Amino acid sequence: MKFRCDRDDLVEALNTAAKAVTNRATLPVLNGLHLNLKKDILVITGSDLDLTITVTVEVSGETDGVSVIPAKLLSDVVRSVESGIVDLTVEDTDLQVIAGRSEFALRTIPADEYPIFDEVDTEPVNVEASTLVKALEQVTPAASSDDSRPILTGVYMVAESKGFRLVATDSYRLAVRDMPGSSLLAGQPPILVPSRALTELARLLEGNKEVSLHLGDKEASFVVDNVKMTTRLIEGEFPDYKRLVPDDNPNKMTANRSELRDAVKRVRLLAQEATPIRLEMTSSGLQLIAKTQDIGEAHETVDASYIGDDLTIAFNAEYLLKGLEIAPGEDITLETRDNQKPAVLKSDEHQEFLYLLMPVRIS
Asked: What class does CATH assign to 245-357?
């Protein structure tokens, strides 16, 4: 295999494909990037079997071939050389990288050990990228990172009568985002997509206009320009999230979202050692309180309107802050029944979004 290309283009492609490579790979060969050159088209693949990212790059090809190179080392080497043209040549078990006055020789990994991936061959459904990015950024933070409960590490995508819905929960909080008017899953059963894959997808989509979804029985592929990302779908039944969302909450507090977010950031400095933030809500407004034994305490009054019985409720500081960061709109409303039942963060301006929080018990 022999080709030459622009260093910056190659660095971007290598970095993108390498996002699917992890140190937890079950096969040593998956610590590498698979390079396949045919004429002037180089296809770079990174995978951990659950997530696969393929990037296609136009190069000046001289000799076709296939090789697997250690992912991090190859990315570091190409990124370290000066800008301009880079020459790469594979002979026997070595990859030679030449750029300017720099020359490297890297040992390759046997390419015949690299797995062969099946293509998801279905009709694509196209979605506007900017809308999907915003939705993913609002939902993926609520997914769990605990692999012992794989169902909760995914984002539930389900068709609705007027579009489709994204849902994620880690059992302590729940995020729901509707995508009205989109036919992404029309006529399809619900799917459960790993949140890690969707987080990477959101990064790929930045600056792009459209993404195509190819849906298979056990996998889903997203195509963005010259990048294709394929992920295994999570098998199992997603929790019945609808029963968690209260139908009616008598206590409602409304405040400016940015002001409340900034106040929570300040008070959170004293909410250490898993100390929750308390919200004291009365007809005169809202007060935030954080007290940590042997460290100190913080109080801040926030302008807010409140309807309901005087109530003190506490939340995990990080979860509350994240909800305020990802919620849309200028004003935010917190609705709850009491300090034991789930509370709902939402915006009257943006009915498509909902963030549910479980309160923390306080004495």
From this structure: alpha beta
